Amino acid sequence: MLNAIGQALIYVVPFLLVLTVIVTIHELGHFLVARAFGVKVDRFAIGFGKALYSRTDRNGIEWRVGWMPLGGYVKFSGDLDASSLPDKRGLDTLKSEIVSRDGAGAERDYFHFKPVWQRMLIVVAGPVANFILAIAIFTVLFSLLGVELRPARVAQVTAGSPAAVAGFKPGDLITAIDGRIIADAGEVTRKVSLSSGDAVRFTVERGGTELELVATPERRVETDPIAGRITVGRIGLALSSTAAETRHVRYNPIQAVGRGVQETGDILGTTLNYLGRIFTGRESGDQLSGPLGIAKASGALTNAAVAANPDPVATAMNLLLTLTSFAAILSIGIGFLNLLPIPVLDGGHLVFYAYEAVAKKPVAAAVQEAGYRVGLALLAGLMLFATWNDLQKLNLFQFLGGLVS
Question: Which tens digit of pLDDT belongs to each residue from 120-156?
């Protein structure tokens, strides 16, 4: 029983800690840009539900920590509802109340009466803050620790595989994929895993000669130690490199920032590519994860970091680095998710503000209401789908089936 509780804490606590940091940075993005434009703010909250901690500063802003650590929000003065998007009638009513209470011109300090470009910047600042956090983390890791670069040297080719058909041979060095230079074998694996059914062009160095080989990855079901059973693309290559070929590269601060931006862009590009393949039917979507899957991943990473070294100090450093890297990747995912053009998310707000900028008037109340209903349905459907994936990977259905068989 105690062991089960301990394992549950290992999975839940790191996830909540990482999530809290990411949500705080996201909301700070909204908050800081809003304050820079002189917007009045009522509350900055991390977590929902009853307040565990609450303090009101001299500007009248309440800083609150809720008991449910699964999100956060910034409440601007004058918000009429959770959408922060009143229609023209609502704006007129709000303006009358503000003017009658505080005098003419006081409405200019309220979010809803700021120029639309300022409101758009305030909204987009949350996701941008998530990307900046990821870049900052990668920059620190690349400059302080550096990276191990292992050339994509072919060690083995499976007979009858797409790689064998394409003409790969042991000893080949993959130097580029679809025209992009490859510095590490991991880049080959990532590209191939999300290219099942698509022809991939490899630039290969063999005996001082450069060759072009084309292989089409096959879709396979594999078990990942962190993600569980997933569908990935494979071409039948085993990659390896000698110790002499492996390079440890530590970047100077400027180079590290550039590499951090590149890493963040690569993760975003991979995410967009994967979603596009889902919508076109080329991927099943089994790699999408919800809170359960993310908690499982954080727990698996925590266990791996703890088991890697028996020394307490080394274990603590390993755990810190592991969770920091995980935070960077999760921060990118949360930033991207919030930019989706779904009305309940930041991206949906941007769509409404874009309409307002063109039409010179807010979106009608009926359209906003319909948009939010559709947005909630889409978001709920996405979460249900991701949770279904998580439960499948946790083998819950096999477990329940075993109970009644």
Answer: 999 999 999 999 999 999 999 999 888 888 999 999 9
CA separation, residue 169 to residues 174, 186, 237, 243, 245 (Å): 11, 19, 9, 21, 18
| Residues belonging to the active site | 27
364-404 pLDDT per residue, tens: 878 888 888 888 888 888 777 777 666 666 554 443 344 34
Q: Which of 235, 167, 229 is nearest to 195 (CA)?
A: 235
Which parts of the chain sit beneath pLDDT 50?
1-2, 82-83, 396-405
DSSP for 168-211? --TT-EEEEETTEE--SHHHHHHHHHT-TTS-EEEEEEETTEEE
Burial grade of 119 (CB within 10 A; 0-12, 13-18, 19 or more):
buried
Bridge-based pairing state of the strands 173-177 and 180-181: antiparallel
Neighbour count for residue 345 (Cβ, 10 Å): 20
CA atoms of 250 and 143, how far apart (whole Å): 6
CA distance 270 to 273: 5
One-letter amino acid at 112 equals H
- DSSP helix, strand, coil percent of the chain (3-state; round to 5): 55, 20, 25
343 with 365: CB under 8 angstroms?
no
State the Cα–Cα distance between residues 405 and 400, nearest whole angstrom.
9
How many whole angstroms separate alpha carbon 345 and alpha carbon 19?
17
Rounded to two decimals, the pTM is 0.85
Q: Is 53 helix (H, G, I), strand (E, B) or coil?
A: strand
Q: Look at residue 315 in the predicted model and tell me its pLDDT.
A: 67
Whole-number Å distance between alpha carbons of 391 and 179? 39
24/29 Cα distance (integer angstroms): 9
Rg of the chain taking only CA atoms, in angstroms: 25
Nearest CA to 39 among 69, 59, 19? 59
Q: Residue 75: in which H helix or E strand, if any?
A: strand 62-76
Q: What is the CB neighbour count within 10 angstroms for residue 34?
A: 22
